[in-house]
Amino acid sequence: MATLLRSKLSNVATSVSHKSQAKVSGMFARMGFQAATDEEAVGFAHCDDLDMEHRQGLQMDILKSEGSEEGGEPPLEGDIHYQRDGTGPLPPSGSKEACSELSGQGKPKITAWEAGWNVTNAIQGMFVLGLPYAILHGGYLGLFLIIFAAVVCCYTGKILIACLYEENEDGEIVRVRDSYVDIANACCAPRFPTLGGRIVNVAQIIELVMTCILYVVVSGNLMYNSFPNLPVSQKSWSIIATAVLLPCAFLKNLKAVSKFSLLCTLAHFVINILVIAYCLSRARDWAWDKVKFYIDVKKFPISIGIIVFSYTSQIFLPSLEGNMQNPKEFHCMMNWTHIAACILKGLFALVAYLTWADETKEVITDNLPSTIRAVVNIFLVAKALLSYPLPFFAAVEVLERSLFQDGNRAFFPNCYGGDGRLKSWGLTLRCALVVFTLLMAIYVPHFALLMGLTGSLTGAGLCFLLPSLFHLKLLWRKLLWHHVFFDVAIFVIGGICSVSGFIHSLEGLIEAFRTNAED
């Protein structure tokens, strides 16, 4: 009896210890330390995928006490042990069971200000450096599009959250879904109950991988333009950057990387302020006559994708709203974050274009004088390299969950061994993904084209098309006429912009690919 009592006390103590570690890790993710620098906001998607216990190398196993095995009393309620040996069963990712484990009553919640910080980091990332290039090809229409995209993305974020709720039998509004995937699956049920989720997952993987490619491209571009006198080409700089990033294939969690996230974000804001300060110092030479009401028909659709991509945050909003202390403050939080983003992006893009006019480059820091360009660009490269593991790790997790760990529906055997260690062929796949981002960066080293393509393909789909479509499908009987009008208008306009931007970006990429192949 004494042995049994000691065993139970030991199990409970171990359970509390490991749960506390998991909660602290989750708290870091929700306080902005983990999702802070990821412009595609991967930290909260799919029941907070980035801080799920399996990503920490932890798996859940309900320990059966010795008394239960010997026919004694059942195990204590909640006697759950987080093991690092990978032998315990893991609830399927995205399932209600897994989400409930992560959303227990003891899980720390975030305030509206903390939620706004995460949204701000998602839509105010380093990709705003490409916005002046969008003004170059769009003029005042480009500025209008920055405002229009902010309004639309704010609205679609709100209606996406509305799709999480339904009215129960008592007439109360209750949350019945947890993620973007749940909403997509509900829209395709009952005939195709998993089709919507697969579409969203594919779009998410494409966006995450393209984000990784953009980080490699911008690293090579910035280093090449910072040290033009060195006998090192942009492709060589990209290879060097990828060599630094290769250890990402061995990542089991983002605990080490996440410690630098807040510092990187603050450094990026400082860099933006420095660029604006330099532009203001040359205010007397601003070329107002260069900003006109004309568009470059061939290149402006690419600018649309660039602007849309800079506002993408919808994929993680459901989990973010579910982690707020007061979800009723979500709408207010969305309003002030997008208003602030609209003002800052518009001012940054306008003053930067007025300063350099027709000489505006794809990455605006390349226009800075050589005396300060190298310092600013080195900080940006450091930020890009430290930001790369976030989307890379999220893309790997989505692929592993969809293809290797989805229970009986997995296409391939599990890439983790019984002891929780990554198998050799699983490590090979991760390395192959890093090499793939390098090859894309080498053969298509065009920041604006890649950003425009991603924004037109996945950005417009996740921010414009799918939220409006899901809203109409799930709640059309309860919608007022103006909501129906807005949803249809957003779907049509978003579809036109998406198709146009995708075609022109793809044409530019094909031409660039041919040119680089010939060289």
From TrEMBL:
It catalyses: 4-aminobutanoate(out) + n H(+)(in) = 4-aminobutanoate(in) + n H(+)(out); glycine(out) + n H(+)(in) = glycine(in) + n H(+)(out); beta-alanine(out) + n H(+)(in) = beta-alanine(in) + n H(+)(out). Residues 109-505 form the Amino acid transporter transmembrane domain. GO terms for biological process: gamma-aminobutyric acid import; neurotransmitter transport. One of its GO terms (molecular function) is L-amino acid transmembrane transporter activity. The chain crosses the membrane at residues 141-165, 205-224, 260-280, 300-320, 332-354, 374-399, 427-444, 450-472, 484-503. Residues 66-101 are annotated as: Disordered. Pfam families: Aa_trans. It comes from the Eukaryota. InterPro entries: AA_transpt_TM. One of its GO terms (cellular component) is cytoplasmic vesicle membrane. Keywords: Cell projection, Cytoplasmic vesicle, Membrane, Neurotransmitter transport, Synapse, Transmembrane, Transmembrane helix, Transport. Antiporter that exchanges vesicular protons for cytosolic 4-aminobutanoate or to a lesser extend glycine, thus allowing their secretion from nerve terminals. The transport is equally dependent on the chemical and electrical components of the proton gradient. May also transport beta-alanine. Acidification of GABAergic synaptic vesicles is a prerequisite for 4-aminobutanoate uptake. Belongs to the amino acid/polyamine transporter 2 family. This is Vesicular inhibitory amino acid transporter. It comes from Machaerirhynchus nigripectus. The gene is Slc32a1_0.
